[in-house]
Amino acid sequence: MSETNRQFTLAARPKGMPSESDFNLVESPIPTPGANQFVARTLYLSVDPYMRGRMNDVKSYAPAVQLGEVMTGGTVSVVTASNHPGFQVGKIVEGNLGWQEYALSDGTGMRIIDPDLAPISTALGVLGMPGMTAYFGLLEITNPKPGETVVVSGAAGAVGSLVGQIAKIKGCRAIGIAGNDDKVRHITEDLGFDGAFNYKTVSSYHDELSRLCPNGIDVYFDNVGGEITDTVISLVNPRARLSICGQISQYNLEKPELGPRWLTTILRSQVRIEGFLVFQFLDQYETGQREMAQWIREGKLKYREDIMEGFENTPKAFIQMLQGANTGKQLVHVADL
Amino acid sequence: MSETNRQFTLAARPKGMPSESDFNLVESPIPTPGANQFVARTLYLSVDPYMRGRMNDVKSYAPAVQLGEVMTGGTVSVVTASNHPGFQVGKIVEGNLGWQEYALSDGTGMRIIDPDLAPISTALGVLGMPGMTAYFGLLEITNPKPGETVVVSGAAGAVGSLVGQIAKIKGCRAIGIAGNDDKVRHITEDLGFDGAFNYKTVSSYHDELSRLCPNGIDVYFDNVGGEITDTVISLVNPRARLSICGQISQYNLEKPELGPRWLTTILRSQVRIEGFLVFQFLDQYETGQREMAQWIREGKLKYREDIMEGFENTPKAFIQMLQGANTGKQLVHVADL
Questions:
Q1: How many CB pairs under 8 A join A and B?
Q2: Of A196, A227, B5, B326, which residue is the least packed, with the fewest Cβ within 10 Å?
Q3: SS3 at position B72
Q4: Checking DSSP bridges between strand B102-105 and strand B92-95, what pairing results, if any?
């Protein structure tokens, strides 16, 4: 444990794929809590695709990270000093305290988690933001019916791997699209997807999807965008529902990409497309967490974590995740309890 | 009145914009009704954008017109001979009897209209398919709220001109996009749109839409597609709703057009896009017709018809409509009652 606090701040706004030099590792004193404040030590840090958007200085649903500011990010931490009656020393807390080893908080947006219920890291994964994204983004946005075919892109990632399993729980046929053969094997053999393919090695997305979805596509959960999504749209059934969760293929482009216009298909097949942000379901999280935890206990829902060791490797973990190296939820292990 | 029946059949499948030579004018005997059949003489014929799709030999929501077959199309007709107890001689009927002067029918898909309630031609316009398209495509698909900004493309057409007026009735700001200055004048001065522009003469769609929609765009009713739609999407507010009714800019392209990928905006702004076909609201038509007729009686809803004289000019009317020459509903007047 270092005597000082370490933080990653945003050093430069990347064009295209970020590099480690876009972040500065800076040292500062460990903060001291004022009235109604506490200090928490980071145990696990989450790196997620949405953070790429926060590095751009553009209007979005959340403010951009400013140059010199600590990078934003979800954390599981332990309270080490406190003047806050609701957050006593020793409590495990989940929230967004950013890329730093110690953080000061007044409790806003923080919740205490029970380490006896599930491993504390799950608060950043299957029972946290990615889990709620999969749960509500599939069930609330697309309302999948038994027997329907559900396709998910980014299918081995933190969200996608759960989406396919929830589709199976709901009686659907689940087809995954992922970026390497290990991921394809994992989601079909370990997670029970009905089919999957490696988009980096197949000769035709259209042929693979046609083969794996002989009855067409009723629901699409999109983490990726680009040509994969264009191809899915060419194969949708009437009244298909598309949940737009992520567009990771587009986030690192230096200029916007062109693609075929497909709104005529959306019209003729009476398709609904809806973009969502998980925060819109905040008041239903408890329901989602309860049901997801129940499915885990029943053995119906499996999750995998990719753990990078060491706070100093956070930028590396983030960049590798953007490049698709992870299978499951990418975390950084910063300290032991 | 001719002694024989005249029909337009499909002579060739057009690439791009149809021409008059894609249709054959053929003569045949006036049919004689069998048991439970009637013969009706066409009074008005409707020409509509959707017919362009039926000329292509591709899978769609409705079968393609075959070469040599009579072109499909909505009609208002009078029963001239009948062995059908439900359709007596002299009754005025609305349905889809196609591009011909006389048609045989067993009554399927036909309804009797009351000529005392409204001019019979309105059964093909404001109280028919275009009217129901505007009514349900706006109200059911986008649920506009008072104070919201509603943008409609193809705003002077049979559907668009009604959409903007219904938006006004619902307390919204209505902005139209149309293809000549007369149309712009008509929808703002005669129909009460809050603003409009001629997309063929402005230097920047973005600048015009920004100026006319200072509070952003909450609802978009799309008849056109292409670059106009891309620009609208760049200006949508969070939780905007897009109703995809038509894509007339795309129907006559010889190969699919490329455009910027905008699903990242759909995601970040939590936008819903829905394609619809008016037939999905068939069981609610009566409600829509009753409310639209009431608005017409109250002077809140105006409609305009563009009448082409003479059955032999039907292909010309159709092509001019596709080229945007009409303001309001394009009809062909075939015969007097």
A1: 118
A2: A227
A3: coil
A4: unpaired
B215: Cβ contacts below 8 Å, ≥ 6 apart = B149, B173, B237
Number of domains in chain B: 2
**Taking all residues of chain B, what is their mean pLDDT, rounded to a whole number?**
95
How far B62 CA sits from the closest chain A CA (Å)? 9
- What value of ipTM does the predicted structure carry? 0.90
- Cα distance from A48 to chain B (closest Cα, Å)? 15
Q: Do A250 and B264 touch (CB under 8 A)?
A: yes
* B183 and B64 share one domain: no
Rounded Cα–Cα distance for residues B72 and B93 (Å): 16
Q: Give the amino acid at A314.
A: T
> Is B247 part of any domain?
yes
What mean pLDDT is predicted for residues B14-43?
A: 96
pLDDT reported for residue B244: 98
Same domain, B31 and B62: yes
pLDDT averaged over every residue in chain A: 95
Residues 6+ apart with CB under 8 A from A131: A122, A125, A162, A288, A289, A292, A303
> Does A270 share its domain with A158?
yes
Q: Write down the pLDDT at residue A117.
A: 82
State pLDDT tens for residues A182-228. 999 999 999 999 999 999 999 999 999 999 999 999 999 999 999 99
A137 and A104 inside one domain: no
CA distance B335 to B337: 7
Cα B190 from Cα A232, distance rounded (Å): 44
Residues 6+ apart with CB under 8 A from A27: A4, A5, A6, A7
Q: Calculate how close chain B gets to A21, using CA atoms only, in Å.
A: 26
Question: Which phi and psi (to 5°) does residue A209 adopt?
Answer: -65, -40
- Residue B297: C-alpha distances to residues A150, A292, B117, B161 (Å): 48, 56, 11, 17
Cβ separation A270–B257 shorter than 8 A: no
Q: Same domain, yes or no, for B119 and B152?
A: no
Q: B285-297 and B160-169 are packed helices; what angle lies between their axes, rounded to 10 degrees?
A: 70
Q: Are residues B109 and B285 in contact, defined by beta-carbon separation less than 8 angstroms?
A: no
pLDDT, residue B196, reads: 98
- Give me the domain span that covers residue A104: 5-121+305-333
Q: Supply B20's token pair.
A: 């008059």
Q: Which of A35, A13, A201, A19 is nearest to A104 (CA)?
A: A35
pLDDT in tens, B293-307: 999 999 999 999 999
User: What pLDDT band is residue A118 in, cutting at 50, 70 and 90?
Assistant: confident
Phi-psi region of B181 (alpha: psi -120 to 50; beta: other; left: phi over 0): alpha
CB B333 within 8 A of CB B310: yes
Whether the Cβ atoms of residue A278 and residue A137 lie closer than 8 Å to each other: yes
Kindly determine whether residue B261 and residue A257, on different chains, have CB atoms separated by under 8 Å. yes
Tokens of A253: 């482009």
- The reply to whether B114 touches chain A by the CB within 8 Å rule is no
State the greatest distance between any 2 C-alpha atoms of chain B, in Å, as a whole number: 64
The secondary element (H helix, E strand) that includes residue A185 is helix A181-185
Q: Model confidence over B250-281: pLDDT tens digits?
A: 988 888 889 999 999 999 999 999 999 999 99
- CATH number of residue A47's parent domain: 3.90.180.10
Half-sphere exposure of A272 (CA within 13 A, CB side): 16
